[in-house]
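Submission sheet (multi-component)
Chains listed below:
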Amino acid sequence: MIREKETTLYLGPQHPGITGNMMVKLKVQGDTVVKAATHVGYLHRAFEKLIERRNWLNAFTLLCRFCVPEPDPMELTYARAVEELDNREVPERAKYIRVIVMELARLQSFMLWYAGQAGSAGLYTLGQWSVGDRNYILDLFEELTGGRIYHMFIWPGGVRRDIPEGWKDKVLKTMDYLEKRQDDYNQLMFDNTIFQKRAQGVGIVPKDKAIEWGVVGPPLRGVGIKSDVRIDEPYEVYDKLNFEVPTAEGGDIWARALVRKEEFRQSISIIRQALEKMPEGEYTNKVPNPMKWVVPEGQAWAKTESVRGEIGFYVASNGTNKPYRVHAKGAAYTHGVTVLEKILPGQNIADVSFIMNSLGVCPPEIER
Amino acid sequence: MINDKDSQKIVDFIQNFARKQSLFVMAYGTGCGAIEIPATMTSRYDAERFGIRGAATPRQADVLLITGYLATKTLKRVIRVYEQMQEPKYVIGFGSCTINGGMYFDSYNTINALEQYIPVDVYINGCMPRPESVISGFVKLQELIQQGKADNGKKYRENLEWYRANQKKIIKNWKMPDYNW
Amino acid sequence: MTELIKEQHLLDTITNTFKLKGRVIRDRRVEVFADKELVSSILLFAKNQQGFIHLAHMTCIDWIDENKFELIYTIWSPVEKIHLFVKTKIDRENPEMENIDSIWDQANTYEREMREMFGIQFPGLIGEQDFVLEDWDEMPPMRKDFDTAKYASETYFQRPGREDAKDVRETISERSGTKVPDFAKKYSREK
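Outcome: structure written.
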């Protein structure tokens, strides 16, 4: 007879399968998880405290480091909150550039997801391909903004720079390439029996509980609820572009993977449309002297759609040249704690990092 | 024969040569720099050309890569990981945050100078360092190993008390096994 | 601003039910101000009867001049597509707030963080005392009167800066004995 004794297993913080520097404390019986508890704090840098000591523009250098795989939505969300507080207009061209940057950021994050999701199932080839190809997008970012990972490109009132000459063609060329490459990725991932067997029916988010638990983004669309900030509360020029919000049924890892696979296509299509429709004109309105810039008293909430789900910023000003309070909420804040703790019991130990990857758990977003 | 000074030199040379060609990097992403590691390891930059590859556990690893800022909670785990590693062991401080705190210089939860807590062989500056600079940092480490200058594991053992005092100043609840090997 | 019928209707429903003050901020944004005893009933009412089923965000602002903590509950209705902000102020001394994790499970995470970062007590809150920090024995760090720069400079080793006020390229070139490239000379501080 097998001994039915409960053991405590600390998964992480130093564990190759975990999606960052965090720890999941598991109570296991055999290799079945009985209870799970997330422990975070290994990446706590006190961003929100530090932003209170910086001025309104200096905050951007900190903000984009909230979540590493996809820093741009943070900048956009904060910039939109500050624009609302200070009544700053954004030129039409800047809005299109912002959309392009956001979608490029989504694409590169999807490619990291491909690598992580397949890697945690033991399919390492896909990681080599997609992370290698991700460099093409980072090259585009580098030419546009000067940075590979962190861009600090979006600011209240527009973007920092106009698009360079010839950049448009490079983007279109990269998009054509990625569209072809995605078929290869899908072949390796979705046509692979190992992935099918492991993903189907594992890590199910129940449909009736999903919104209550705070599930957002692809995991929510994976249970069949059509929810996307880009259509619920359109920002920038998303209401002028045609795109689908894919959904899937089932709520398991497979459904979430299908949603992401289709979103990858949609992002490419959005970038193409935005490049086509982008008008000529100014790329930014004048930004005041950051040392003297005083934002009027008030509070604002802005949210955007990132790869993992909605990201919201609550910004409060007391009428000085420094933010009084900035509070960020990323999708991982609920995915990584409440949702993970609720869906892990009953799963295999081997599936834990698989589920974490598919939920998009990004620890720096939880503790900031 | 082996006690002969010249032959020892040859043995050292061969040992160092072999060591520098296979650096197993501890797969512990302590901070945001971990995002450039996949890029460094995959097809475009392909760090495996230099014999750099990942290792899953501390006991198999040669290099501890501190990728960015260290929160005090992580510092405790890093020390534990570092002490579990077998000699020869090397530490690379990756990113400005390990050098002087970088943009988190005034944060209450991140340390500002890594070499006060564990000995560091090579620092790579930048935020974030590009994969090229990561590789150049590794090449620098290889040079140091070839010259026999990278013996920080020994330095740590000899100055353990000094390091411990610094570490305990930050980590209040010290419940860790002794470092005695 | 004439098109905000949906928002105005929602505001009227809630303010009339609970006798509150509130306002429509702009489209899709409605805020109400409540006493702390009323917050959980407003949230329950909004969740069960008005369709605000998603707790988007919870935050706390430390208004040190007023000696108050302001708690803000942001809830979202996927049907009406409106954000409702429920705001309340509590005393800064011995702050205590009702625990709402029976309404939304995810509120537990926010409350644990607030307990740690601001020292607000939520009676009946499940979860370990330490959420993010470990062995922290100072004042809750997100309070405005906690000086993070002072704490950092006292606790952590500060690396002294370079003494020469030169451009960093010149310092590096001097150290390594190489020449400063031409394109970098325009940044030189020695004019």
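Remark: Chain C touches chain B through 17 residues (CB under 8 Å).
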